[in-house]
Amino acid sequence: MADGDNPQLYLITPPDFELAAFRPELERVLDAAPFACIRLSLATHDEDRLARAGDMVRDVAHSRDIALVIERHWSLADKLGLDGVHLMDGARSVRAARKALGRERIVGAFCGASRHDGMAAGEAGADYVAFGPLAAGNLGDGASAPLDLFEWWSEMIEVPVVAEGAISTEASRHLAPATDFIAFGEEIWTAEDPVLSLRAFLEAGELEPS
Questions:
Q1: d(CA 202, CA 89)
Q2: H/E/C letters for each residue in the chain?
Q3: What is the Cα–Cα distance from 165 to 182, expressed in whole angstroms?
Q4: Alpha-carbon distance 154 to 88, whole Å?
Q5: pTM
Q6: Contact 163, 134 (CB under 8 A)
Q7: Cα-flanking dihedrals φ and ψ of residue 100, to 5°?
């Protein structure tokens, strides 16, 4: 679906954070660039922790008109007033999540490096699919998503595509014409200053939105 314009920016939260300390850091990052979507990506399954984090991130996101999806826990999306869910199992849960959330909320699906899973997720009703990581790592099954997967997808498929995981400045430069969204998560959160790190990615990849 990408048409050669700059991809939109997608932010993934750290897998763990302390609410009071993270809020101002999140606000700084969101004020540094026009993000289109945030994913609450906590590693915990504790519903109380997820709910408190969801309330805080929702307030920050919605005050800036940014969509917020939660990873995996689609039952909390409606309960917390979030915009949707990001699924981690390819196409397998898309239909169930869509049925539970209705047509108005976002259903995204992470599909690793599998073209087949991406197409199946789109056919099942996903609003977007995500491929990654861009280098071998611990996301999904560890396989990397090659650039030609994004190029093929952008030429052949209408469902928007997100590039995530192991994003480098070099990768972001090459991905820009072939993806609808580039997701930044640990790439910036592990830096001493996430805002400076984000700006370095945007400048090096020529991704500064107009």
A1: 29
A2: CCCCCCCEEEEECCCCCCHHHHHHHHHHHHHHCCEEEEEECCCCCCHHHHHHHHHHHHHHHHCCCCEEEEECCHHHHHHCCCCEEEECCCCCCHHHHHHHHCCCCEEEEECCCCHHHHHHHHHHCCCEEEECCCCCCCCCCCCCCCHHHHHHHHHHCCCCEEECCCCCHHHHHHHHHHCCEEEECHHHHCCCCHHHHHHHHHHHCCCCCC
A3: 9
A4: 21
A5: 0.93
A6: yes
A7: -70, -35
Burial 143-168 (b: 16+ CB within 10 A, else e): ebbeeebbbebbeeeebbbbbbbbbe
pLDDT in tens, 193-205: 999 999 988 987 6
- For the segment 171-198, the average pLDDT, to the nearest whole number, is 93
Compute the distance between CA of residue 117 and CA of residue 157 in angstroms, rounded to an integer. Answer: 13
Q: How many CB atoms lie within 10 A of CB 39?
A: 24
Amino acid symbol at 51: A
Enter the tokens of residue 158.
């209408």
Cβ contact 122:103 at 8 Å = no
> CA-to-CA distance for 98 and 127, rounded, in angstroms?
10
Indicate the residue type of 207: L
